[in-house]
Protein 1
Amino acid sequence: MSASPRSTEDRCVAAFLGRVPYLDAWELQRRLHGRVARAQIPDQLLLLEHPHVYTLGRRGKESDVTATAERLRELGVEVHRVDRGGQATYHGPGQLVGYPIINLRRWGGGPLRYVQALERVLIATLAELGIDAQSEDRPVGVWVGDAKIAAIGVRISQGVAMHGFALNVCPDLSYFGHIVPCGVPDGGVTSISKLLSKNVEVEEVAHVLVRHFGLALGLSMELGTAEELGAHGLAGVRSWAAPGPGVSLHKS
């Protein structure tokens, strides 16, 4: 069931940033968060990839990263403790990371309803790609059988959400083997490309996800440009490629 729109002016600007270092994206989130909280700009949806990085949420423990410091250097992985919910997770090339900056007071739902909406977005996106995924009776996130395909971890401050979700499109899944993912020692992971037995591009999935994001949250989606994101202080981002045939961004 989709959230009811707040008004005819409900807008969310979605931007695909390409590959962005984790700390740069975190700083951009903070800048946008403040502007959304002050109603200076519409809600935002940042979609991107990161270089290899492990992050520890508020409930994460140092022991959740099982690789030694030397091994982390060999793998080229950074480790950062962050202010989102959840425990340890991995981000890297081939993974679609989404950072929605959403004013939940205007949207009209609390944290639990918001997380459930994100799960619906991911499940609907996967369904369009031919993958049957679930979230009910599972830890937070989206699963295909016993394997996790998407993680969710958010932070809400001043009624505005930040951080978000990570969907495995075509990442090197071996990197999950050096952490206790989301606090589940034996938790399996999978990806879209693995399940479909073909290579799927991250930006292709991003276009599908944007439409389902608007439908689930009752928002009219607009594609932001690299120039607009550069105005918020992040240099080097790129504009979207053209959406695929039949891709409609606006809510029905």
Protein 2
Amino acid sequence: MALCRPVPIIMIWKPHVTVAAVAERDGRFLMVEEETDEGIRFNQPAGHLERGETLIEAVVREALEETAHVFVPRFLLGVYHWAHPAKNLTYLRFAFGGEAVGHDAGRTLDAGILGARWLAADEIRAGAARHRSPMVLSCIEDWLAGRRHPLELVTHYA
């Protein structure tokens, strides 16, 4: 009779891939105020990459769904890695800088989004305790520092 050995359980770890749209107009940044399980928070228009879409398609979609603004990405602002300390979740955020060029005032926003807000950098800094993550302020500071990377750094294979 053969002895049965316990089969090891292999835990597969993968980060949550997200995108964020960073747009500035007249010294104010496009932000969203949203309901979360941690209360009302501020974030850039952001969300998860969905199966079958490119990172660029994802950031355009998320900005429209959360703000009713048409976002045109112009550059890669940065790639941010953050492990949520209380949730055992890791996020890999691709933040794109660009322009909000159109607005559909009658569009219904995603569930949980209270509204789009245009905030000055000092207002964003002052509200850091209500940010969805530390990546929010990092993106603003990187924008203000002039970080700009060509979109060609992101390659999509169909």
